[in-house]
Design brief:
Elements: H1 15-22, E1 27-31, E2 37-38, E3 53-57, E4 61-70, E5 84-91, E6 96-101, E7 114-123, E8 126-133
Length: 135
């Protein structure tokens, strides 16, 4: 019997992000003062300190900044998925996001490769943003 995967616990701050992923949309925060894009959800801009932040839709494209190959599961629920790629993607808007790289053979993974968002459903109404190679 496999264990269920760990699930995110939306907070009032992160709720817009999770509601968007359920619709297969990737949202980022953008500072209204300096226009810096932010991820993960925060109360203040990391560049100028402004508390005036808005949610905006990301184009969902970026490049692979770094990665590692998990050859041992990081959680019992992932035992049947090894090996898999844990990745940091630099989004076109600037922020970096930790994720999984999917639909890519291990020998084809390379830093700098163009990627795009793909949403994986964990349970009904709950999706995670993964990334896959962009054609």
């Amino acid at each position: 019997m496999s264990r269920p995967p760990p699930l995110p616990h939306p907070t009032p701050l992160s709720r817009p992000f999770w509601e968007a992923t359920a619709r297969r949309e990737l949202l980022l925060q953008r500072c209204d003062a300096c226009e810096t894009h932010l991820f993960y959800p925060r109360h203040n801009c990391t560049e100028c300190g402004s508390r005036s932040l808005s949610w905006v839709r990301s184009e969902g494209k970026g490049s692979l900044f770094t990665y590692t190959i998990a050859r041992r599961p990081t959680h019992p629920a992932f035992a049947d998925r090894v090996p898999y790629v844990i990745a940091v993607v630099e989004l076109a808007e600037g922020p970096r996001m930790t994720t999984n790289l999917i639909d890519c053979s291990l020998d084809a993974v390379s830093v700098g490769m163009p990627v795009e968002v793909a949403f994986g459903e964990l349970q009904e109404g709950l999706r995670l943003p993964f990334f896959r190679p962009r054609a």
